[in-house]
Amino acid sequence: MGLFNQSTEKKREKEIRREAKEISKELAALGMDKRVAKEYLEVFQELLIDACLQKDCYVYSKQQMAECRLLIDTLLPDIAKKEANEVCSQLKQLVVLLQDIYHECTIRRDDLDFASTYAYIKKSAQEYDGSDRLMLQSELENLLHVVEETLEWEAPDFCALACFCKYGNRSDLAEIENRQRNDMILRFYREQFWDGFEKELEGCGEKEHVTGWIKEKLEQREDV
Question: What's the pTM?
Answer without folding.
Answer: 0.91
